[in-house]
Design a protein that fits this description.
It is a single chain. With 220 residues, the chain is mostly helical. 55% of the residues lie in helices and 10% in strands. Strands 1-2 form a two-stranded antiparallel ribbon. Strand 3 and strand 4 form a beta hairpin.
Length: 220
Amino acid sequence: MPSPYSHVSKTKPQRTYAGEKEGRDVVRWLNWQLFEDERIRQIRLALEEISGERSNFRQEQHRVIELLRLYHQSCIEWENLARNVDSTRLAADSNAKNSARKATAHQTLERRLRRYTFYPRFYPLGKVLSFAWEPERPDHPESYGEISAIADLAKLAEKDLLGHLKECRCGRWIWTRFSHQRFCSAKCREHDFRSSEKWKVHRRQKAREYYRLHKSGKVK
């Protein structure tokens, strides 16, 4: 008897999306040691103290996280400003305040990005010329660090995909394939829903219904 044949290949490669490799590399680095156990942290600090090599990883991680938060804040302020201008022209002073808030986030972002310097590098390969931006102060060749993360963020920004890097409500960073994705897990999604005003209204309504049924004697 012939064995059943599946038209779906088990070795079929998963579909990949533009920017997914860079996005996942950045996310993996951003989440590294983010929820580190306190005992493990103390051991790691003690080992660093003994070896005399104090890691600046936390500072580097924090700088990149702040850049991403500034970027998202700048996008929100731009959208709010555009919405206000398109709908009902606010007063001049209100528009000025919105512009100032937008400029503050955007200018802070630009100012912090100036610490990273890259230069063009050409790789002549016969008749083909390869080109890449190289950091002035690169990470260690065998490690993925702050400079590598910034380089990947630049690649994502060039493809207009920087907005796909999002911070979940729990503090964990995620790479989203689709714009509607906001959470790293079903647990975080449910927790967010249960803390929303919509859920609270639903709970109050159910509590009132139960109270009426209990008072009428239909339920004990």
